[in-house]
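Researcher: I'd like a structural prediction for the single chain below. Treat it as a standalone chain; there are no partners to consider.
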Amino acid sequence: MRTVFLLLMTAFLAWSAAPPPVAQEKWTAEDVVNQESAGGWHFSPNGKSVVWVKSSSDKEKNEHIGHLFRTDFATRRQVQLTRGSDSCLSPKWSPDGKHLAFLSSRAAPKAKAKSRRNDDDAEENKTQIWLLDSSGGEAWPITEVKRGVSHYGWAGDDAIIFTATEDSTHREAKAKEDKDDAAPVEDESAEPYSRLFKVTIEGRKVTRLPSPGNRLDRLYVSPDGRHALVNNVRSLRYIYDNRIKPVWFVIDLETGRASRVFEDSRLSLVHACWSPDSRTVYAIDRASSRPNLDQAGLYEVVRLDPQTHKHDRVNLNWERGLADAAESGAGFVALNDGFLALLANGVRPVAVRYTRSGEKQPLQGEHVGNLQELASPDGK
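Model: Treating it as a single chain, here is the predicted structure.
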C-alpha cells in the first residue's frame, strides 16, 4: 500500500510540476471558409521548379481567388506570378519551357481601356488562355473567344488545342435583332455547340478543327501533341435522366481522324490522363452496381492503348478503390511504366505506385501518410 501511495504521489508531483497545456483555439466557421489551399501543380520541363495555384479568400468579392506561384527546388524560393482580383488557374508549361499558359477571366488591356471609356457597354469577361514568358514580363491573352475557353492543352511548342462554345447561333442573332428576350427551356437545338479549336502562339491565329461531336466536354492532349482524347455529350439531359451516356474519341490532330474508344456502356469515366510517352491513356471509372446510372461508386482505373483502341481494367488489389481526389486528377499520376495513385483509406489515403507488370509498391517517407494530392513528371 505504501508503494502504491508513493507512486501516486510521484505521478501527482510530476503532473503538478509540468507546465500547463497550451489551449488551442477552435476553428470557427469563418476560419473554414477563409482557409487557403494549394493545388494545380505543374512541373517545369527541366524539373527544376513547379508552378501551382494558391487559393485564398477575397472578402470584397466574397469568393476564393486563385493565383499562380512558382517554387524553385534548389533554392526553395517562391515567386508570385499573377496578381489582381481575377483568378488565374490551370497552369501548363509549353514542352520547351519557354511559355507558361493559364486560364483567366481577367480583362485584356484593350478591354480595360474600353471599360474605362464606357462602363455601361462593357461586357462580362470570359475565360481566355493567357501566356507568360518564362524569362519574365506581363501576361497576355492569346484567345478572344466570345463565350470563353473550357479546356486546353499544348500541341507542341507553338500551338494550343482548346474547346470552346461557338459564337452566337442564328437563332440567337435573330432574337437579338428582334429584341426577343424569351429563353427556351428544354430545347437542346437552342443550345450553342462546343467545338475543338487550335491557336498558334505566333500570330494568335485560331482554326476550328474537325470535331467528332457537337458538344465536347472534356479534352486531354497527348504530351507529344499528336493526339487528343475528348468526350462528346450526346444529350444535355443526361445529368438528369441518365439515358444517353457521353462517348469518347481519340483524335489524330494531324489528319483529323476520330476513333471511338471506351466502347463499354458500363463505364462512367470522370477523368483521364496520358502517360508521358503518349503511349497509354489511363481513365478513372466511377464503378457501381448499377453502371447504367450516373451515381456514387468506387473509383477504379481503366487502361487504354490509343493505337489499338483496346482497354482493360487495372486490378488495384484494393477493395476501397481510389481516393476521391482521383475524380479531379489530383490523386493520380500516369507514368511510362505504370502510375502513382492515392487509395481510399478514410481521411488518410494510401500512396502507392503500380507498375505495368502489376506490381504494387507503397510509397515511403516521413509525410507519406498525410498526402492528399500527387504530382510528378516522371515518378522520381
